[in-house]
Amino acid sequence: MQASLIEQELEPADAPAPGPSCAEPAGEFGPRWTPVDFVGGSPGSRVFPSAVVSGACVYIFGGHNGTTYRNDLLVLSLETRSWTVDSEVDGDGRPTPRDAHAAVLLGGRLYVFGGYDSKRYLADFHSYGLDSGEWRVEAASGSPPSPRGGHAAVVHGSRLIVFGGCDGWNYFNDTLAFDVQSAEWAPVRVAGTAPGARSAPSTAVHEATNALYVFGGYDGARSLNDLFRMDLRTSEWAPVRTSGVPPSPRGGHTAVVHGDRIYTFGGKSGRSPFNDLCCLDLTSGVWEAVRAGSPAPAPRCAHVSVVHGGSLLIFGGYDGRHYFSDCFEWSLEADRGAASQALAGDLECMVESGQFSDIWFEVEGKTVPAHKFLLFARCEYFRRMFTSGYAEAAAQTVRIEGVSHAAFKQVLHYLYSGRPREMNAEAALEVLAAANLYGVEPLKRAAAEIIGRSLTPENAAAVLSAADSYQAPALRAQATAFIVRHFAAVVQTDAFAELVSERSRPLLLALLREVGTVVSPAGLAASDGLLGVAGGLPAGGYARRRPDARSPADAVRQLDELGIRGIADAE
């Protein structure tokens, strides 16, 4: 049987040797890979299938086994360690056999889009009801993705979001979404710096921060190991700066999220498959190899990975010659425990003790000891400082300007321990600025979340300005939505008046446009008692004004007094 074009792309004949892997040899101690044996034997090999978890069951659809493309649905019970082939997949709505498709679970239905059927790339769209056991063709309107395979799909709210893939000729980096409520496809209007076009990347969603992470893949010329993050609330992409040793370039690998960590396994570059398990700590931004207490599964790509009950399970895959039907389990709960926490605590103590320090920072007249090797390893800003050839590179004492002593200590504590210290909203504003200056994105996000929980009509405009200045898009969106909800009160604050300046004019205009999408100034004056809501209710929705809130008509008069209604109207 002809190999999937995705497989062929992952092993070009002139592919260079892969770079160093983050793999660690098996040790005597530590978590172990455990083979999972199913009652009745193996369910058979699968390459580039899809997998979702619902309850204690894993639903695996499609893939191929070296001779046949499949469209059956395997149901693996993790409680009984048994498997069945769903007997109700023969209806008119079932997908044709395929691999390299994408599938997600949303609202009790398994949605399947696209893939490759050995002859062509597909753009059909089907769903399977887990309760009804019936397939159906999704009659979607709008602008669906073009035919493709090797794409990724994730869920956010009521939307299925598709990214990337290829069609044998073209590689994509577009982002499209299907809303199950409207049954409509639409392109996602993204901002920021998006990943380049690619197929067979890994994707993982960190629900606590509403973030989609895309790692690696293949762009038609080479395998990749770059990492990008999309804020699913604002649709803004950004490259993620990390430290440590990342996985080498690859495609056809998998990634899962557990807690605040992303785990990647396997993949392939050229003719070399991998079996390394790597971990990215989203709090510290550090990649590290995960050392096992037992041999790892055979190297492979095009497998599936899921998380259930604190364990990572991998199934199937391909190494260039063999098609796998095995399943392995790894305990994520046992991966990092007391030893890791103790190490973080020990490193944090070094900030206070100053023991073995080889550099000192002077901040607001106070001396802060530190260690070059650790700052070099953990922060790109300090790497550049120590290798720049300027005076700071050789100096033992470096003067720091524009950052408070407390905020600088917060940055150092984070770089040493990988965890933010407790802070209030006022301190978090200073930390937001410092973390932005030093490029410590996880700390910046932590500070932004604290600030976002402390929004009031009195500080919202100042927070919006800070979020814009310090490149915190999620906080900016949150502050904008808050201002729209409480516009009549916010517009009369001193902080809002500060926005009325030439320097802040673009930000002010963007805010007024956002207000205008909910209710116009004329509408504000005419709708005393109601405030339009953006970012929390469907378009056209309203929220009742608090009894103590000022009249929207007063807000319009205040805009006139500030002289800014004409600015918005002129634009």
SSE topology:
Blueprint (H helix, E strand, L loop, with lengths): L4 H5 L23 E3 L14 E5 L2 E5 L11 E5 L4 E4 L16 E5 L2 E8 L4 E9 L5 E3 L3 E2 L9 E5 L2 E8 L4 E9 L4 E4 L3 E2 L9 E5 L4 E8 L4 E9 L4 E4 L3 E2 L9 E5 L2 E5 L2 E2 L2 E2 L3 E5 L4 E4 L14 E5 L2 E5 L11 E5 L6 H16 L5 E5 L2 E5 L1 H7 L1 H8 L3 H4 L2 E4 L4 H13 L7 H14 L2 H12 L7 H10 L3 H13 L1 H4 L3 H5 L6 H14 L2 H6 L3 E3 L9 E3 L7 H11 L2 H6 L1
Parallel strand pairs: 10-14, 15-19, 20-26, 30-32
Antiparallel strand pairs: 1-29, 2-3, 3-4, 4-5, 6-7, 7-8, 8-9, 11-12, 12-13, 13-14, 16-17, 17-18, 18-19, 21-22, 22-25, 23-24, 25-26, 27-28, 28-29, 30-31, 33-34
Question: What's the story with the biggest beta sheet?
Answer: 5 strands, mixed
CATH superfamily of the largest domain: Kelch-type beta propeller
Strand content: 25-35%
Distance from first to last alpha carbon: 61 Å
Structural class: alpha+beta
Mean pLDDT: 82
> What is the level 1 CATH name of the largest domain?
Mainly Beta
Secondary structure tally: strands = 34
What number of structural domains do the residues give? 3
Radius of gyration from the alpha-carbon trace, in angstroms: 26 Å
Approximate shape: globular
Explain how this protein is built:
Helices cover 26% and strands 29% of the residues. It has 571 residues and is α+β, with helices and mostly antiparallel strands. It folds into three domains: 24-336, 6 Propeller (Neuraminidase), CATH 2.120.10.80; 337-421, Potassium Channel Kv1.1, Chain A; 455-571, Alpha Horseshoe (Serine Threonine Protein Phosphatase 5, Tetratricopeptide repeat), CATH 1.25.40.420. The strands form nine sheets. A five-stranded mixed beta sheet has the order 10-14-13-12-11, with no helix packed on it. Helix 3 (372-378) crosses helix 4.
